[in-house]
């Protein structure tokens, strides 16, 4: 039986590992870190992703540790005028008509535990250094924390090693796109915004005077995405006093908001030209990165893993290796036209500063949310179901 190498123990690599394991395909997964990180990364799971994970038996334990969110909204602050999108409108199209708010690290832990318990070959603390291939195999060289060298041979390599992919770098692949000018500042707090802002959903994208913020609720805290005000520098915006002032503007509190974590990050929109390079296949952030507005990055990577493993299985069963090009044909246009483009539009909408234009946008969104047919169409697209159906139709 052919062996698959996997680089990266994030949600994409671990999903691919469990899929391969369940299909009886040998694999070796290497991960540079010695343990899974627990920091805040992606936190939204869309309905079709939960449907997919359910086929692996991991949706139920994930849902048990997350927060079911039947609606999401775009709203004005401070008046609270809003457009609310209720995912019950697509209940006939999915077994999970809601977003699940849960840290991606929870899924990674569930997946890793399953893979290890079922005998999968996972090697933590092994950092990939180089990769080579010929017509018959892929050779990975790596090093452990003690400096020990490792060589792994496989028939294929799945590069799921993230936005700073070593594999992509070693292949010297262009990663075309752009970096957005603004810096997002993530602040987490256990402050109960839902008790202070009427009609709040668990997922909220909000316009404020001359700016924007978002509030995403997790089971035990809120994630607040904030931005520098006006001419405020990044350094000043990261100061606790600036964070406190912005949170007071959102929901005044005499006791303060008890901020637990402050982390700045830049947002990129980039994609490789092809997901397959010989016997090496890129997936998730190694292949494409996008604005987090809409929560589609991690979900798209998990969708990559399902499509990739299904295609790999057909090649292992005898299809010609060129059949792997179907993976690019199915997934890259969806990433470009459905994920990156939609996330870019979401970001541009929330960066709009003209009050009149904002009001026009909100009025249109309220019209869409209020009409059953248009709401359903909008939710099929924003929940990523449309994109998956388009991909499946590609030969």
Describe the structure.
- The longest helix has 27 residues, at 325-351.
- The two termini are 26 Å apart.
- This protein has 12 helices and 20 strands.
- Helices cover 36% and strands 28% of the residues.
- It has 395 residues and is α+β, with helices and mostly antiparallel strands.
- α1 (11-22) packs parallel to α8.
- 44% of the residues are buried.
- The protein has an 8-stranded mixed sheet.
- The protein has helices spanning 11-22, 47-55, 59-64, 104-117, 166-170, 234-237, 240-250, 297-316, 325-351, 355-370, 372-382, 385-392, and strands at residues 4-7, 27-31, 44-45, 67-69, 71-76, 82-86, 99-101, 121-124, 126-133, 138-144, 149-154, 156-159, 176-189, 203-208, 211-217, 222-226, 259-271, 276-277, 280-282, 288-289.
Q: Compute the number of strand runs.
A: 20
CA-based shape: globular
SS element count, helices: 12
Helix content: 25-40%
Radius of gyration from the alpha-carbon trace, in angstroms: 22 Å
- Taken as a percent bin, the fraction of beta residues is 25-35%
Poorly predicted residue ranges: none
Average pLDDT metric: 96
Look at the helices and sheets and give the structural class: alpha+beta
Characterize the largest beta sheet: strand count, sense, and whether it forms a barrel.
Answer: 8 strands, mixed
| Distance, first to last CA | 26 Å
State the strand order across the main sheet: 6-5-14-15-16-13-17-20
């Amino acid at each position: 039986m052919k062996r698959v190498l996997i680089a990266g123990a994030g949600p994409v690599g671990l999903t691919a590992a469990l899929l391969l394991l369940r299909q009886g395909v040998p694999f070796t997964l290497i991960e540079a870190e010695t343990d899974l990180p627990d920091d805040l990364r992606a936190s939204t799971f869309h309905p079709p992703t939960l449907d997919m994970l359910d086929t692996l038996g991991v949706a139920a334990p994930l849902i048990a540790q997350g927060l079911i969110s039947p609606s999401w909204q775009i709203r004005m602050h401070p008046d609270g005028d809003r457009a609310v999108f209720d995912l019950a409108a697509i209940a006939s199209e999915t077994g999970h008509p809601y977003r699940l708010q849960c840290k991606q690290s929870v899924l990674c832990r569930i997946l890793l535990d399953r893979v290890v318990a079922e005998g999968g070959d996972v090697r933590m603390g092994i950092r990939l250094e180089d990769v080579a291939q010929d017509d018959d195999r892929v050779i990975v060289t790596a090093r452990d924390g003690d400096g020990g060298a490792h060589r792994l041979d496989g028939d294929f390599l799945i590069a799921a090693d993230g936005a700073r992919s070593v594999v992509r770098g070693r292949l010297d692949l262009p990663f075309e796109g752009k970096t957005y000018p603004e810096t997002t500042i993530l602040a987490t707090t256990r402050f109960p915004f839902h008790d202070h802002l009427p009609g709040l959903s668990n997922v909220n994208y909000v316009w404020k005077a001359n700016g924007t913020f978002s509030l995403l609720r997790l089971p035990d805290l809120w994630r607040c995405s904030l931005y520098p005000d006006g001419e405020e520098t990044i350094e000043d915006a990261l100061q606790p006093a600036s964070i406190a002032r912005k949170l007071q503007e959102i929901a005044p509190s005499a006791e303060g908001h008890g901020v637990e974590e402050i982390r700045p990050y830049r947002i990129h929109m980039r994609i490789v030209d092809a997901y397959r390079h010989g016997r090496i296949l890129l997936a998730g952030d190694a292949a494409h990165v996008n604005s987090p507005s809409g929560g589609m990055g991690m979900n798209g990577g998990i969708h990559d893993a399902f499509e990739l493993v299904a295609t790999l299985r057909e090649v292992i069963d005898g299809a010609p290796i060129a059949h792997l090009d179907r993976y690019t044909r199915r997934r890259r246009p969806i990433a470009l036209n459905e994920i990156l483009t939609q996330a870019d539009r979401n970001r541009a909408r929330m960066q709009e500063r003209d009050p009149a234009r904002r009001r026009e946008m909100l009025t249109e969104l309220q019209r869409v949310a209020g009409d059953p047919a248009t709401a359903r169409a909008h939710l099929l697209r924003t929940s990523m179901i449309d994109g998956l159906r388009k991909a499946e139709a590609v030969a």
